[in-house]
């Protein structure tokens, strides 16, 4: 079986590839010659995932899945949410995004947050979605060098280290994307 993962994010690709069984060949957008920006104009995480998967199916005719992830901070009414990648502006800079979030939380005691990933799978003319959530909190300062996005300021529940301080294997076991991908894999294995 081969399937397209509708992303240009090499970090996401690496994370997901490590979770997919060897008999499932994962293709990137680059592998199928898709170099245009796949639209993400929906107002929900689930909506964006579905939009991206439908775009690839419609324009390339291939079975595919797409994900969208948002960081939801309780005291900020679940912001940045669907706008997580461009929270500090269209440049999509992770450090700018983290700096803005830390500034917005400066005087807040409640630092509860969660990462939410939704995967939309378009296969055999059927659309399925899978959701993974990882609850935790936002740290006061950036900690760690690994990971990407908000990883240096997110600490999962019952952990003393941020996502940027733990191994990829550990992150995949407890993280939002790992949970959603596991549901996807369980579904694909039954096909």
Report a brief summary of the structure:
The chain has 191 residues and is α/β, with parallel strands linked by helices. Helix content is 29%, strand content 25%.
Structural description of this entry:
This protein has 191 residues and is of the alpha/beta class. The protein has a single domain (2-189), classed as Maf protein (Alpha-Beta Complex), CATH 3.90.950. Helices cover 29% and strands 25% of the residues. The longest helix has 16 residues, at 45-60. The chain is globular, with a radius of gyration of 16 Å. It starts with a strand and ends with a helix.
Q: Name the CATH class.
A: Alpha Beta
User: Helix/strand/pairing class, anyone?
Assistant: alpha/beta
Indicate how many domains the architecture comprises.
1
Shape-level CATH architecture: Alpha-Beta Complex
Average pLDDT over all residues: 95
Number of helices: 5
Q: Give the uncertain stretches in residue-range form.
A: none
Q: Could you say which overall geometry the principal axes of the C-alpha atoms support?
A: globular
Which key terms come to mind for this protein?
29% helix, 191 residues, 7-stranded mixed beta sheet, alpha/beta
Q: What's the layout of helices and strands?
A:
Elements: E1 2-5, H1 10-17, E2 25-27, H2 45-60, E3 64-73, E4 79-81, H3 94-104, E5 112-123, E6 126-138, E7 154-156, H4 168-174, H5 176-189
Parallel strand pairs: 1-2, 1-3
Antiparallel strand pairs: 3-4, 3-5, 5-6, 6-7
Helix pairs in contact: 4-5
